[in-house]
Amino acid sequence: MGRISKMEKSISYLILCLVGVLLFVPFVYMLSIAFASDATTVKAAFTFIPLEFTFNNITRVFTDYHMGTYLKNSIIITLWTVVGSVISASFVSYGFARLKAKGSGILFAVLLSTMMIPGEVTMVPQFIIFKELGWINTFLPLIVPSFFAGAFNVFLIRQFVMAIPKSLDEAAMIDGMGYFGIYSKIILPMTYPILSAIAIFSFSYNWGNFMGPLIYINDPEKTPLALGVQLISTAAGGQVPPWNMVMVASLFLTLPMLIVYIFGQRFIYEANISGGSAGIK
């Protein structure tokens, strides 16, 4: 391949800038609505460029709409699911990558085949199981499944681990280290980039998870932020929804995911580069 000309590079950057501006437009409009006054909200006289800066909306969403409770619940659920996703997936993938047992290939194929099952198919059976366990209206249906290693996460980490030379394992065994010691002291530190990427994916999904809390949570005191935004939009009781409060809540829902991705994109990039030869794309 020849070198990219300056003209081609300029066109590429121009297209990227236009796409970036297009994607940034809804965020600017959200800011404009979030800081609008109640009078503007009732009239729905919103402007694209923010003309009002009612910063009191930020405090009001906490005092009048239980934002503190929603944030606390989201933090609890998200932290536990991230921990569960990373630990369980790394442990299971290490077993598939390093512990060769009869039928392990078939088990791995069965695990991957679960990725083809739509979530709508298992939604009702899962609800019945959690209901029989008495977990409805608790955080457990949202947290416990993450400790059972998602198939996609296991696949990514397994491919990453298979790219690590087995000579490191053999040298550790000669020194008297067992499988768990190899996992915790050799494999785990070397898979830090892919584990960080999985943690970011898990955080983004669970922080914005709406369907799970909608199904399993009935108590407003246990409602996470994603479902709380919907509750705020219906707080007016059939009148004009308080769109400025809804957008303030949406800011709290959006900003953490943006911040996590901005500071964590380096790990996603490292995971793709380091695991590219192993099939991570």
Could you explain the architecture of this structure?
There is one protein chain. Helices cover 71% and strands 0% of the residues. It is built from 14 helices and no strands. The radius of gyration is 23 Å and the shape is globular.
What is the H/E string?
HHHHHHHHHHHHHH
Percent of residues in helical segments? over 70%
> Strand percentage, roughly?
under 5%
Flag low-confidence runs: 275-281
Mean pLDDT: 86
User: Would you tell me which CATH topology applies?
Assistant: MetI-like fold
Structural class: mainly alpha
Compute the CA-based radius of gyration. 23 Å
DSSP E strands, number: 0
Please give a handful of descriptors for the protein shown:
14 helices; 281 residues; MetI-like fold; mainly alpha; transport; single chain
Task: Produce the secondary structure layout.
Elements: H1 6-34, H2 38-43, H3 56-63, H4 67-98, H5 104-113, H6 119-132, H7 140-143, H8 151-162, H9 167-174, H10 179-190, H11 192-207, H12 211-216, H13 225-233, H14 243-275
Helix pairs in contact: 1-14, 3-14, 4-8, 4-11, 4-13, 11-14, 13-14
